[in-house]
Amino acid sequence: MMKLFVPVLLTMLLGTSASLGATCTLSLTINDAITASTTDYLERAEKRAEDNKCDSIFIRVNTPGGSLQSTRRIVERMLASKIPYLCLITPRGGHAGSAGAIILQACHVNGGVEATNVGAATPILGTGEKMPDDLRNKMINDTVSWLEGVTTLRGRNLQFSKEIVTEAKSFSSTDAVKMKALDILAQDEADFLKQAEGRKVLLQGKDPGVVVVGDLQEFFPDTRYRILNFIADPEFAYLLFMGSLGLLYVELTHPGLVAPGVIGGIGLVFSLIAFHKLEVVWGGLALILLGIAFLIAEIFIPSFGILGIGGLVSLFVGSVFLFDQATGYTLPYSIILPVVLAIGAVFFGVGYLALKTLRVKTKDNDHDLKSSEGVVVSTDENGHRGQVSVMGEIWNFVSEDSVNKDDRVHVTDRQGLTLNVKKNKE
């Protein structure tokens, strides 16, 4: 009995150990320019990797470059990461230009597939215009010293990091590997991950670690990323900011137009997020509060639904932005949409009732009285004065015709609390 029990117990323990030792690698793809959307995307990816207890993060890179400010934030995050970043320039024909080349140097293990290139990291203005010499020298020297520090930390080629900035040089991945600017020249994604497995790296800048590659868990771009990517282009963000200020000015100088104020308010929050002046989560909260303010204003201000529509859009986008960066949890649309629609229904319903109430005319309104009929309640001896019941109320009346009690009359005018009436013709 014991001989049978021991093998079974060992099998169970070994199976449990294998299960506990299961590894994963979070994978994502950067195919666009480096902007605030990329920063937010990588921050959420790292949080997701930590929550899922993944041992590494794999990034497919194919980018022309992008914002230097966003690049700095990404590099800072990679250097402080407890999880190794594995970055590969892919697919064939792709490149890691400008900001992408700098990010490649910050990755714990980097590489490129054949027929890709890396470099051309000279800072330029977003408009493509020529910079003044003093400003250009300042930006180049600052970028070179910064990148040299990153390159030294990763033990790569200092000459490469200097030339791609000062001379805008670009190298094929094959040459970059020979120069020890890239670690791996791979045939494909699987080959890169296989070569990266087991390499020794520095985590958080100083702690030694070993790269472990597990089953790939794809972290796909979501609606939040797509919205941010749309607004975060530097030129578009600038135009959005200036346009929003212009619309708000129009609203302030021409109160009551409503639409410029709604569009300008939402656009201003978007542009502040794109400029990194507002974290995405705080931007989401600002949009939600702005949306509620618009919906409340819809009740009191006749805007033909503009305030209401703007409020619902603001609520929806704010809800998409609000979660994930700090919590690693994304609100599903099955919650966001019903909540936004329910809030919209409540506010539009209240607004409809308020508008309906405002349109109800008071019972002592001259127009209503003049179109009303009444019944004589009492008269004097001549039948020219007395009291009449009109619309459920008792009024004093004066009549050109002689009337009797219970005669039907119609109102022709009102003088204070006295009605002018005329006897109905039989």
Descriptive overview:
This protein is α/β, with parallel strands linked by helices and 426 residues long. The chain has 3 domains: 200 residues, 2-enoyl-CoA Hydratase, Chain A, domain 1 (Alpha-Beta Complex), CATH 3.90.226.10; 136 residues; 58 residues, Nucleic acid-binding proteins (OB fold (Dihydrolipoamide Acetyltransferase, E2P), Beta Barrel). Helices cover 50% and strands 19% of the residues. The chain has a 6-stranded parallel sheet, sandwiched between helices. The protein has a 5-stranded mixed β-barrel with strand order 12-13-14-16-15. A 3-stranded mixed sheet has the order 4-6-7. Strand 15 and strand 16 form a beta hairpin. The protein is elongated.
Q: What overall geometry do the principal axes of the alpha carbons give? A: elongated
- How many β-strand stretches? 16
Structural Rg: 36 Å
Structural class: alpha/beta
Just give the CATH class of the largest domain: Alpha Beta
Question: How big a fraction of the residues is strand?
Answer: 15-25%
- Strand order within the widest beta sheet: 8-5-3-2-1-11
CATH superfamily of the largest domain: 2-enoyl-CoA Hydratase, Chain A, domain 1
Characterize the main sheet. 6 strands, parallel
Structural domain count = 3
The appropriate CATH architecture of the largest domain is: Alpha-Beta Complex
User: What's the tally of helices?
Assistant: 15
Average pLDDT metric: 84
What is the helix fraction of residues, given as a range?
40-55%
CATH topology of the largest domain: 2-enoyl-CoA Hydratase, Chain A, domain 1
